[in-house]
Amino acid sequence: MASSNNTPEIALDVISPVLASTTEDTPPASHNIKGADPFLVAFDEPYDADNPKDWPKGRKWAVTDVLSASGFNRILVSTIMAPALSTIAKELHMNATESALSLSSYLLATAIGPLFIGPLSEMYGRQVVLHASNIWFLVWNIACGFTNTKELLIGARFLAGFGASAIYALGGGVLGDIWRPEERGRSLGVYLLIPLLGAAVGACLTLAGFPAKCLRMMTNVRQARS
């Protein structure tokens, strides 16, 4: 009976040092959270100059304005040639289907582009992809301004639309990176409102009598400045 009464005490004497050593070797749970995901970017300091959400308000609005201007230019290009389609069709000897395709090919590319641009931004970063797409858009939009065949116009419009789609795929993500949730409403309002004006401005410029090629070159100048 004595041996049976001492058994729990012996077991506790053996288990307690093991539990103590295990507890000492195990780091706190808070240390494991950051190490659980090697790709997790966390900012522990109350202010970090490398954290876009801690940037000065002026810098945040500068980024927002650039994104809004880029979106304005992209939608401006999509509609700027619509009132001049009949003139362009006569110059390049296009039928009704081909003239409609020269306009809609740009819009088709803006729908396809985000399928590729979104994953590329996760691999190389939004800034790199946005700059590359701006150059791509500028090159092919210049080609639209100097085109003298209907095939080149349709192809250049499609490729320009592919580059233009980057702002639609990545603009919201950039704003989410730099603005905190409670500050994001006004910046999103500006980002969504200004591009909508591009559709109206583009049609008004064409109806005001600007030649089609001059309008296409004007959009190139705006893109180069932004």
From TrEMBL:
Domain Major facilitator superfamily (MFS) profile residues, every copy: 63-226
Cellular location(s): Membrane
TM segment ranges: 100-117, 129-146, 158-176, 188-210
GO molecular function: transmembrane transporter activity
Organism (species): Rosellinia necatrix
Gene3D superfamilies (alphabetical): Multidrug resistance protein D
Topology in the lipid bilayer: Multi-pass membrane protein
Gene Ontology cellular component list: membrane
Keywords noted in UniProt: Membrane, Transmembrane, Transmembrane helix
Domain of life: Eukaryota
Name recorded for this polypeptide: Putative efflux pump antibiotic resistance protein
Record SUPFAM superfamilies: MFS general substrate transporter
